[in-house]
Amino acid sequence: MLRWLAGRGASRRRVARELAQISDDAWQTGVRRHPFLAGLTAEQDAALRERAAWLLASKSFSGAQGLEVTSDIMLSVAIQAALPILALDPALYEGWTEIILYPGGFLIPRTDVDESGVVHEYVTEASGEAWEGGPVILSWEDSAGGQDPRVNVVIHEFAHKLDLYAGEADGIPSLHMRRDIQARHWASVLDESYDAFCRALEAVEAAIPSDVDPESDQASPWYDTLPLDPYAATDPAEFFAVSSEGFFVDPAPLARKLPEWYALLRTYYRQDPLERLG
Fold first, then answer.
1. Among the CATH numbers 3.40.50.300, 3.40.390.10, 3.40.50.2000, 3.40.30.10, which is that of 183-277?
2. In the predicted model, is pLDDT for residue 113 greater than 80?
3. Of 175, 187, 98, 191, whose CA–CA distance to 138 is shortest?
């Protein structure tokens, strides 16, 4: 146990201490909170628990806007964040140390430059953000579970961290130690799958009747035919992050409509949620 921890950003002693402090009741309550964790084998459950303890030992948690970050909150976040690295090297989450939690959505200043070179500054509300070399920022309201079962902001932002570990956020995580995945193959499948999703989204948007506001809940029956949230069409980095959400929490639509992409994610994460969740 914990043999994999050598040189992983937190001492074995600290991780062992965090592991010992996670009671069986607290662990089972934390796991039951998230239905997508059903079906874990005893071995997978133990691995998830170790990695959650590693996250608790190696990352600092802080609350913003008066949020009191309790041990239950930290454990819940750590459990969800540990799932993508269940069968991967935790070193992929190194290079940064802080997780910041807001009670709910928070505002982020943005700057965009349009095709004419004009700079546009604005503020947008977010439920999560991952900074390159910096913290993961989360809305606890959106991270606690009980919201849309197809959405998981924690997995989404930690998928961005896997992407950023390789450098620029471009939808291609670090593959330099992976003999089972060629970077060229990943890029090819990513491009094809991203383009296919964008085409499917365009078809859905074209099919929405003119008397239905595409931004309203009335348009949900059309968007629900897609395997992923429309936000996945933003760019390849968001496509990877949203796909990772879908892969872990609602894998069937992704496996059915983008099978080659699902198979590649299954190889990368070394997990098959579709088989596990039945």
1. 3.40.390.10
2. no
3. 98
